[in-house]
Specification:
Blueprint: H1 3-24, H2 26-61, H3 63-79, H4 84-95, H5 99-109, H6 115-124, H7 130-141, H8 145-166, H9 177-180, H10 186-199, H11 204-238, H12 241-255, H13 263-271, H14 273-281, H15 288-301, H16 303-314, H17 322-353, H18 370-406
Domain Nucleoside transporter/FeoB GTPase Gate: 44-139, 220-314
Protein name: Sporulation integral membrane protein YlbJ
Transmembrane segments: 47-71, 78-101, 121-143, 150-169, 211-232, 291-314, 321-340, 381-401
Amino acid sequence: MNRSRFKTVVLSASAVFLAGALIKFPQEAFQASIRGLNMWWEIVFPSLLPFLIISEMLIGFGVVRFIGVLLEPFMRPLFRVPGVGGFVWAMGMASGFPVGAKLTSRLRQEGQLTRTEAERLVAFTNCSNPIFIFGAVSIGFFYNTRLGIILALAHYLSNFTVGIVMRFYGKDEDISPEKSKKKISIKAALIALHRTRIKDKRPIGKLLGDAVQSSINTLLMIGGFVILFSVINKLLFHMGITAVLSGGMKHILNLFNFSESLSVPLFAGIFEITLGSQMTSQAQGASLLHQVIITSFILAFSGFSIQAQVASILAETDIRFFPFFAARILQGLFAGFYTLLLWQPLYENNCCQEKALGVLPAGWIPESDSMSSLFYLMGKYGPVFTLVSLFLYIIILYLRIFQTSRN
């Protein structure tokens, strides 16, 4: 049996197996679907939509090209990517998964990146946003604000380290010396901005409508993946597959003297980061340090759910998925290592100098913590924002279809 036929058999068998599991566990699948849907319309949609729309507009107006010319002298020597990679990196950190992949694909489609440059860039520009790390994980799961600093530093430091490592990927690609020795030029950046804006002949209304439509299409796709992997994770647990496969992880955890109770949360986190992080925070018999290291690894690896979203976005271009997947494994290892290094100076030393925080009651929101307050507001008003945005999206789509039919 050749590779193509084997792949067909595996995919078909997986689909049949999933359908059978849905029939056997309909109630559990329904509950998991509701959980995924709530996560999408309360947090994912309202947090990503503004960033996606603004990013599309910045690209259309030429601002991204302007930033790219300015950052070329920094991004090229460090990461061997064009200056526009700085914009993608910043937006990826601010907004979270999978905005880095979306913007990288967009720039690749416009020809601002070569395939190898795009594969380098997408490998280190996809990360969790600060709201999720501080609000959901640190406050919502661990009830400890100080852990957010360690998790965020480890996450973004490992992100940066992966970018440095990936600069050696595809090193045979020819890069001219002149291209890598450019100096900062405001004049050249302004010229590039103007030329890009003139080249895009769409009026402002059309550009804004395209940005909204493209962004919501992406978020609908993301929502489907969030719900699907929430269901898969739940079904694997109820069918006992999670317990069986996590048994192999116990041996790996034992090598590092980690509690075996972390094996199931780690397996869950490999599929979906939110559930994995939550289960890790609730693991019995594991030290807080080990819980935080596993959580850091889960955040960096990002889970098959987000990786599937990225794969779907990259499929629209010639960017290969494997470099991104390999980078996730590397970042997970780096994140765990940085967490271990940062633990004593940032947590244990502070515990000796300050009064321990103790366990906070569920739903507690510190008044001075803007991240957790924002996360709380998103959970409260996120569904309203999502419904209003979808309503506007339907109106825009209807008007475009009506206008097309008249023409």
